[in-house]
What we know:
With 346 residues, the protein is of the alpha/beta class. It has helices at 58-66, 93-97, 111-114, 121-133, 137-150, 156-159, 169-181, 199-216, 227-233, 251-256, 261-268, 308-312, 341-344; strands at residues 14-27, 30-43, 47-51, 74-77, 80-83, 86-87, 104-107, 187-191, 219-224, 236-241, 244-250, 317-319, 325-327. It has a domain at 1-91 and 225-346: P-loop containing nucleotide triphosphate hydrolases (Rossmann fold), CATH 3.40.50. This is Peptide ABC transporter ATP-binding protein. GO terms for molecular function: ATP binding; ATP hydrolysis activity.
Amino acid sequence: MVKPKKRKTVTGEKILSVQDLHVTFKTYGGTVQAVRGVNFDLYKGETLAIVGESGCGKSVTSNAIMGLIQQPPGKISSKGVHFKSQDLTKLSKKEMRKIQGVDISMIFQDPMTALNPTLTIGEQLTEGVKQHKNLSKAEAKQRAIDMLKLVGIPNPDERLKQYPHQFSGGMRQRIVIAIALICEPELLIADEPTTALDVTIQAQILELFEEIQAKTGVSIILITHDLGVVAKIADRIAVMYAGKVIETGDKREIFYHPQHPYTKGLLNSVPRLDLAGGELQPIDGTPPDLFAPPTGCPFAARCPFSMDVCTNVYPEVTALSETHKVDCWLQDPRAQKLIDEQAFAR
């Protein structure tokens, strides 16, 4: 696993606050409770990684923030999704379109499907900036050239005339990033931005994110299941499980002092070069059915330290530090000490 870097300094200015976000989907088989009471904040210039296994609600959360949930069959409720002074859940579709791609932008998983194969890169880069920034054709072209330079694509004047199939996977991902940033958003949501790339290209894209953030000050929400990616660029981490954020903390708190058994299990299931020859420790069992989620802790059935109260009552959040919070009965002062230091150590 990549050793987590020291957290960079970020301002105390809150740019996004998600409060008690719920997202459900009606299906023929019933109602899926995909996101169940998610809470987190994002600060200016910060990178927040939302991590968890497939199906935990990471992408649904990001799509809800972006206003991309089709209603119906989806339904969103919350106490507020505040982007600066606006509650995004209260905006009309017309009002939301003025924010999408301008103030808040998103990078999707697969760069091949994110780009239109019938349009040149130049057409796709300039479309949004001409519409939202009222630039002339020449001004939009120059902005597109500048963005391609920023993301490290050589000969941008000529590249604008080419089509997506003429670029490698890594180059396509750089173009997708350029499209997301061309209107100078304050918030960038990156949904599994390195999943379809090989390891070498992944490293280049992650370095690009760091360079762009240093130059522009953009805040980033990184959706991923790759803890190596998280260790590389995240400042804080929110761990999701079964539609809930069960632990949040500074990157070093999560990697070196995880307090939720699921977080610890997630870290232990990742191969590590410094433990050559050791066996991986998979998490037994499967996630709960979100058609009928449990009333207590959703991890209780898989947790080796589960108590009766875990099954019946969802734990209140426990603040372990200014940045480290966890939803776990084991942190309750009334809970018996079930985990000794050796069992919870690396």
